[in-house]
Design a protein that fits this description.
single chain; 356 residues; alpha/beta; 5-stranded mixed beta sheet; two-stranded antiparallel sheet; 15% strand; globular
Length: 356
């Protein structure tokens, strides 16, 4: 069944942008609180257990050295990164000091436990223990807790759901949109064209909605009506459209979406990772096609975009789909000579077997 995104869940994404300033104030307060506590501690050096070092190292490695320098006031960023190398990243051989006793849990199994915890933020130790039992692994609850502790993963109530997990939960209801620009030679000289596209997150299908050298809210609204067509519009059967804060997404455009039952989800400022699938399509079309050709006029550019769209949907394997095609043929040819199909003079190539 299609996963239905509840209104409060979409609202939480929108509210995240509003809470940015509040979160920064909380961070500033906690930093100041740490400084005050450090002043009370005086010259006495703080002592940390291996468990505390491991937890700080896991969080600090994800934050990065530059940001650590801004927020870290208990120890230096180099110290935290050294802990990470020592307690998490560095692999060592302890066979020379090995004594009889319980064997260490194999690395592949430990990776599986950590993966389950990351993929399922609400699963506790016992829930993971039960899932492992289904796979033929009998393991103590304390072992699960130790493995998660070594990977810097907190217990279930404190683990947060990642944005990628959230998106996959609501695949069928979500589409995303964005713009990219292309420079083309015209009779007026070098002209910048703005291309607008929409991508279905579940299937990776893309619709090049339109292009223009003079984008405006009216232009976007006119193209939006085509996407919202009640018979064959690309936005049919979807509930939410993810987009950034580009001023071209006007209130009139938002009202148009709501009129067909699609709720616009405006992302927080400076958050390209929240629209990663649209950003990845831009990288693909530029690196595989647009960076390797010189568009000669608007008509030529439209032809290039059309050719890439055909190649993208019919011939190009997609890693996000397990290296499958978006439009899979009913039967793959297993015999016959291999042929190379070319588009745009060989810029785009694909291989297939000639039917017998």
């Amino acid at each position: 069944m299609r996963a239905i995104l509840q209104p409060w869940q979409a609202l939480s994404v929108i509210v995240a942008g509003v809470l940015n300033e509040r979160q920064q104030r909380v961070i500033n307060y906690l930093m100041e609180e740490n400084r005050v506590l450090r002043e009370q501690l005086g010259p006495k050096r703080p002592r940390f257990t291996d468990d505390q070092r491991r937890r700080l190292a896991a969080k600090g490695k994800a934050l990065g050295r530059r940001h650590l320098g801004e927020v870290c006031c208990i120890v230096t960023p180099d110290t935290i990164l050294r802990w990470h190398r020592k307690l998490i990243a560095r692999k060592y051989d302890g066979s020379a000091m090995r004594t009889p006793g319980r064997p260490r849990v194999m690395d592949q199994f430990r990776w599986l436990v950590a993966r389950m915890a990351r993929d399922n933020p609400t699963w506790g130790y016992s829930r993971i223990q039960g899932e492992l039992r289904k796979l033929g692994h009998t393991v103590a609850r304390g072992t699960v807790a130790n493995i998660l502790n070594e990977h810097g993963l907190e217990p279930a109530p404190n683990r947060r759901e990642e944005w990628g997990t959230f998106l996959k939960t609501h695949w069928e209801a979500l589409v995303a949109t964005d713009f990219f620009t292309v420079e083309a030679w015209t009779f007026r000289g070098l002209t910048r064209f703005h291309v607008w596209f929409v991508i279905d997150l579940s299937s990776r299908r893309v619709r090049i909605a339109g292009m223009t050298a003079s984008p405006s809210g009216e232009w976007l609204l006119r193209l939006g009506r085509l996407l919202a067509d009640g018979f064959e519009g690309f936005l049919l059967k979807h509930r939410y459209l993810i987009h950034d804060r580009d001023p071209l997404f006007t209130e009139a455009f938002a009202d148009l979406l709501r009129s067909i039952g699609v709720e616009p989800v405006r992302l927080p400022p400076r958050s390209p990772n929240l629209n990663a699938y649209a950003e990845r399509f831009v990288l693909s079309i530029k690196s595989e096609c647009l960076d390797r050709v010189i568009p000669l006029g608007e008509r030529h550019l439209r032809h290039i975009l059309d050719e890439y769209a055909e190649h993208y949907h019919l011939e190009r394997p997609h890693q996000g789909l397990g290296n499958r095609l978006i439009t899979e043929p009913t039967v793959f040819q297993r015999d016959g000579p291999v042929r190379c199909a070319e588009r745009l003079g060989g810029v785009l190539r694909s291989y297939h077997r000639e039917a017998a």
